[in-house]
């Protein structure tokens, strides 16, 4: 993958689920609600001065959210950050860069 170029969408992995789990509380606080389900379905990544992860997450029923999570470079020793998110997504909605 070229630096700056987003990867193709791929199925979520255990690592992707771990990243989503680490920002779950940030999303729930911003949305002022608890999600009964929080299962990463697919993701894309983009190498910048760190890594952006674009993650599609199933949050119950037919509802999905799209997350943009930033992981800083290892030497910066910073926690994962929920940079942005989109709610009211459906299973068939393509995971975009936002």
Automatic annotation (TrEMBL):
| Any GO molecular function | cysteine-type endopeptidase inhibitor activity
Give the subcellular location. Answer: Cytoplasm
Q: Which InterPro entries match?
A: Cystatin_dom, Cystatin_sf, Prot_inh_cystat_CS, Prot_inh_stefin
Q: Which Gene3D superfamilies match?
A: 3.10.450.10
Main location (coarse class): cytoplasm
Q: Which CDD domains match?
A: CY (cd00042)
Q: Does the keyword Cytoplasm apply?
A: yes
Q: What are its GO cellular component terms?
A: cytosol
Q: Write the record's keywords in alphabetical order, separated by commas.
A: Acetylation, Cytoplasm, Protease inhibitor, Thiol protease inhibitor
Q: Which residues form the Cystatin domain?
A: 1-98
Which PROSITE patterns would you find in this protein's record? Answer: CYSTATIN
Domain of life, per lineage: Eukaryota
Instruction: Name any one Pfam family assigned in the record.
Output: Cystatin
Keyword field contains Transferase: no
This protein's assembly is summarised as:
Able to form dimers stabilized by noncovalent forces.
Query: What biological function has been recorded for the protein in this entry?
Result: This is an intracellular thiol proteinase inhibitor. Tightly binding reversible inhibitor of cathepsins L, H and B.
Question: Of which family is this protein a member?
Answer: Belongs to the cystatin family.
Record's PANTHER family?
A: CYSTATIN FAMILY MEMBER (PTHR11414), CYSTATIN-B (PTHR11414:SF22)
* Protein name, as recorded: Cystatin-B
- Identify the species of origin: Aotus nancymaae (Ma's night monkey)
Q: What is the lineage of its organism?
A: Eukaryota, Metazoa, Chordata, Craniata, Vertebrata
């Amino acid at each position: 993958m070229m630096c700056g170029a987003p990867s193709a969408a791929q199925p979520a992995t255990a690592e992707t689920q771990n990243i989503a789990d680490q920002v779950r509380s940030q999303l729930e606080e911003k949305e002022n609600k608890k999600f009964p389900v929080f299962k990463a379905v697919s993701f894309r990544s983009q190498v910048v001065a760190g890594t952006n992860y674009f993650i599609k997450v199933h949050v119950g029923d037919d509802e999905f959210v799209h997350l943009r999570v930033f992981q800083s470079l290892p030497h910066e020793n910073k926690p994962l950050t929920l940079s942005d998110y989109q709610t009211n997504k459906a299973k068939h909605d393509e995971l975009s860069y936002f």
